[in-house]
Write a structure and sequence with these properties.
Radius of gyration of chain B: 22 Å
CATH class of one domain in chain A: Mainly Alpha
Largest sheet of chain B: none
Strand content of chain A: under 5%
Strand order of the largest sheet of chain A: 1-2
Oligomer: heterodimer
Helix content of chain A: over 70%
Strand content of chain B: under 5%
Largest interface: A-B, 53 and 44 residues
CATH topology of one domain in chain A: MetI-like fold
Order of helices and strands of chain A: HHHHHEEHHHHHHHH
CATH architecture of one domain in chain A: Orthogonal Bundle
Shape of chain A: flat
Structural class of chain B: mainly alpha
CATH superfamily of one domain in chain A: MetI-like
Distance between the termini of chain A: 19 Å
Order of helices and strands of chain B: HHHHHHHHHH
Largest sheet of chain A: 2 strands, antiparallel
Shape of chain B: elongated
Number of strands of chain B: 0
Distance between the termini of chain B: 28 Å
Number of helices of chain B: 10
């Protein structure tokens, strides 16, 4: 590994500590200071003032804010995120049970995106005005216009109900992952496909590609070995930019497909007013987002040697 | 507007997709503004004897499970969805514009503090933040507007800051400064006009993304609450009819897809005009 890449990695990793602290603080502020008393939410709509006060004391919400913050950070660092009120289990246990399904969905979405988007992007860059390019453009415009839950409903109707190819909803083997993946990844596929096309068209005009062509390398070799690698930079950027959409999409799509992941658990927790479960799942989503952005930043160093830490 | 810019605008508008997009967006805005007056029937009038009728000359888009006229409901829902988009984006601009201007123009500690804050907000996937906000404040129109505004603002503030930084370095802006123009005049006369185009591009694409957020919240039962018609909650309440009464899904579904498509077409045309290097908005 070249020295600057190592330095870049170390510096980027050292940013994680302040970032994580910032996030934990923000989540604390959000959950404690936003109007809406957690004790009232926990107690439920038909509770007396005495019950609310008892819960407030039990949760430590009657203590000063700095003490609450200290306890929040300390508990979190031990992996203690409180107890789920609806499931009567530690929040951490619930999250660990639900996390794998969501991870599978997210990894599958990224894999499908890279495979479909890059191949369609390259195909439409090779012949920018060909039939393939036009079809890809039209399909991506449609994919960008359809909400993920609507696409999911249509997939259920055609692939599950009419053709009986896939199970309509639930969690289980790989077959249960296919439709949620397509629903959540469609937008990302469209965007990455466009980005790939644009950046390949651009890099094909760059000096070093011209040099490679002039050396006598075949057009195909130039495309795959040289242009594609540095054209990955904007693609990775787009994946980083849309990671938030992907994570948010998991909430909607998992709910539609009754897919037992974190997102579905979060919506259930919201409807049951399971305050600490909502808070814990939020922490996991935000940390996940942070790690994706870390991965994106680190992969810049891999795909483009010119990158420097600023 | 200069003559070249005028010619460029005409050329961009003449592209068939852009023209179609512009006309469609205008049509939605008129239908939305017209609201209950453009709807052929009372959108809330139930007629259980006429439930689940397919599209007919009497009910253009058919009727829903409670016998309500679907065309009327899609039209009043347009009013709700568009109002939430406009109000949510207004909250976003109202927050992000002062933040971005101050951070970009003043720099220093103010810049670091404001950008630190917006970076922290950006670590939330926007829909997750919206779900959390709605769950804490309570579902309903006001929460959706708030959630939309606060999830759009951080990235917008970053964009405005970076545009202000670039604009403030332009030579003619420095010349104006050298001539003794004060900060308010500099911002109002020289910087804002300079960044307005790119902000408009971003806002347009943010508008189409906002529709995705609003309808998703509605679909999850966390957005605008029934019986008020909203495209997302219409799809949620009728999703079981996809096989037996597909028009119940097709009508609000098509309303969403066509609207987002039209807004994207306009947004991409604006992008070609003002900011050709931008790949996509939010």
């Amino acid at each position: 590994m070249p020295e600057n890449v190592a330095l870049f990695t170390v510096r980027r990793l050292s940013l994680l500590v302040p970032q994580a602290l910032g996030i934990v603080t923000l989540i604390f502020v959000l959950f404690r200071l936003v109007p809406g008393d957690p004790a009232v939410i926990v107690a439920g709509p038909n509770s007396t003032a005495a019950q609310v006060n008892a819960i407030r004391h039990e949760l430590g919400l009657d203590r000063p804010l700095y003490a609450q913050y200290g306890r929040f950070v300390r508990d979190l660092s031990r992996g203690d995120m409180g107890t789920s009120l609806s499931l009567r289990l530690p929040v951490t246990t619930v999250i660990l049970a639900r996390l794998p399904a969501t991870l599978v969905l997210m990894v599958a979405s990224l894999a499908v995106t890279v495979a479909l988007a890059i191949s369609s992007g390259v195909l439409s860059a090779v012949r920018p005005h060909g039939v393939v390019a036009q079809a890809v453009t039209a399909a991506s415009a449609l994919a960008l216009s359809i909400p993920n839950f609507l696409l999911g409903m249509i997939l259920i109707e055609y692939l599950a109900v009419r053709l009986r190819l896939l199970p309509p909803a639930g969690t289980g083997g790989p077959a249960f992952v296919v439709m949620p993946t397509l629903a959540v990844a469609a937008r990302l596929i469209a965007l990455v496909s466009r980005t790939t096309r644009a950046s390949i068209l651009e890099t094909l005009g760059d000096d070093y590609v011209r040099t490679a062509r002039a050396k006598g390398l075949a057009a195909r070799t130039v495309l795959y070995r040289h242009a594609l690698k540095s054209a990955m930079v904007p693609v990775v950027t787009m994946i980083g930019l849309q990671a938030g959409y992907l994570l948010g999409g998991s909430v909607v799509v998992e709910t539609l497909f009754a897919y037992q992941g974190l997102g579905q658990a979060m919506i259930t927790a919201v409807s049951l007013r399971d305050y600490f479960l909502v808070q814990g799942i939020t922490v996991v989503y935000v940390v996940g987002f942070l790690l994706v952005n870390l991965g994106v930043d680190l992969s810049y160093a891999f795909f483009d040697p010119r990158v420097r830490f600023t | 507007m200069s003559a070249t810019a005028g010619r460029r605008l005409t050329r961009v508008l003449r592209a068939p997709v852009t023209a179609a997009g512009t006309i469609l967006v205008a049509a939605y805005l008129m239908l939305g503004a017209g609201g209950p007056w453009t709807a052929p029937y009372d959108p809330d009038a139930q007629d259980l004897g006429a439930a689940l009728q397919p599209p007919s000359p009497r009910h253009w888009l058919g009727t829903d499970d409670l016998g309500r006229d679907l065309a009327s409901r899609v039209i009043v829902a347009a009013r709700v969805d568009l109002a939430v988009v406009v109000l949510g984006l207004a909250v976003a601009v109202g927050t992000a514009l002062p933040v971005g201007l101050v951070a970009g123009y003043a720099g220093g500690t103010a810049d670091r503090a404001l950008m630190g804050l917006s970076d922290a907000a950006l670590t939330f996937p926007s829909l997750v933040l919206a779900v959390v906000l709605v769950s804490l404040v309570g579902a309903g129109l006001r929460s959706v507007v708030l959630a939309l505004g606060l999830t759009t603002a951080p990235a917008l503030a970053r964009l405005i800051r970076s545009l202000v930084l670039t604009a403030a370095r332009a030579e003619y802006v420095e010349a104006a400064r050298a001539l003794g123009a004060g900060a308010p005049r500099m911002i109002w006369r020289h910087i804002l006009p300079n960044i307005a185009g790119r902000v408009a591009v971003y806002m347009t694409l943010a508008g189409s993304y906002a529709v995705l957020t609003i309808t998703a919240l509605g679909f999850l039962g966390l957005g605008v609450q029934p019986p008020t018609a909203e495209w997302g909650n219409m799809l949620a309440t009728t999703r079981t009819y996809l096989a037996t009464a597909p028009w119940l899904i097709a009508a609000p579904g098509a309303a969403i897809v066509v609207f987002i498509f039209a807004v994207n077409a306009v947004g991409e045309a604006l992008r070609d005009l003002f900011d050709p290097r931008l790949v996509w908005g939010p």
